[in-house]
Give the backbone structure.
Amino acid sequence: MTIDNQAPRLKTYLLFNKFLKFKKLKYKLFTLAFLATHVPLISYIAYIFLSKQHNWSIAELLLILLATLAGTAFVLWSIHHLLKPLNYSVQALDHYLEDSTIIPLPHHINDEMGQLMRSIEYTLHSLDRRYKDLETVSSYDFLTDLHNRRSAKAKLKNDLVVNDNQPLCPFIIMIDLDRFKAINDSHGHFAGDVVLKDLAKEIKNSFMTADDWAARWGGDEFLLILHGNELSVNDQLHILRKNISNKQLSFENHQLTYTISIGMCAYTGQQSIHETIKLADSALLMAKNKGKNQIQRA
């Protein structure tokens, strides 16, 4: 049954809502409890008092009225606490919408309110998992499992910082496959995918610190961020280049070989990240023009 099909069931609620303008449900319940209890009682007391057909004193009538007021106060107090699970549920939903954190709700209550809280917490956890899955899908390249270009731009803006307390300098490195078109033309695009995935694996193996990361910048071009001094980063890139140029990949009765060209530039903060990428890209182009399978520094 859809929500639209259940809408007629809300007619009575909407009728109450028309006259009870309170935003909070507990105030509506308080008003209804008070009116249902005291309007008939006060009307009856007024009738018998005005008609003078009674033997009660004013003190006795006031005592009856005070007793019903006490009973009503207990009812209102009970309603207030019976609605606490609903209030907690609303707070949990608001908290998740504000900062994407999930507040644990009680699990030991076995009535309908307990079921409501369990269902809300389960729904929030399911929603959070799906959101994170979508975030991962939208941030990573499906073939290489590296950051995609959109995600890389955000990480460059948010994560790449230079300060006096940081002993290791970040290097922006551009990597490009040499003669990648020839591999696709000779062996097909599936072979090209094998090469791209292998290069991504080798790039991941070249990480030197926990802050290092890489992205598929586009096509057969990759961006790599390494932290270190110039000598250590240069040595690591030579190891990466040499490992790739010496390996063979098996693909459908063929042995595939490939090489890469690399351009690197230190990010010192004196120029923008965009300018540093352009310098690293220029160094990569220089490596291509000088014969490929080599490293050039901007």
Q: What stands out?
A: The chain has a mean pLDDT of 84. The CA atoms of residues 152 and 215 lie 6 Å apart. Residues 3-132 form one domain. The chain has eleven helices and seven strands.
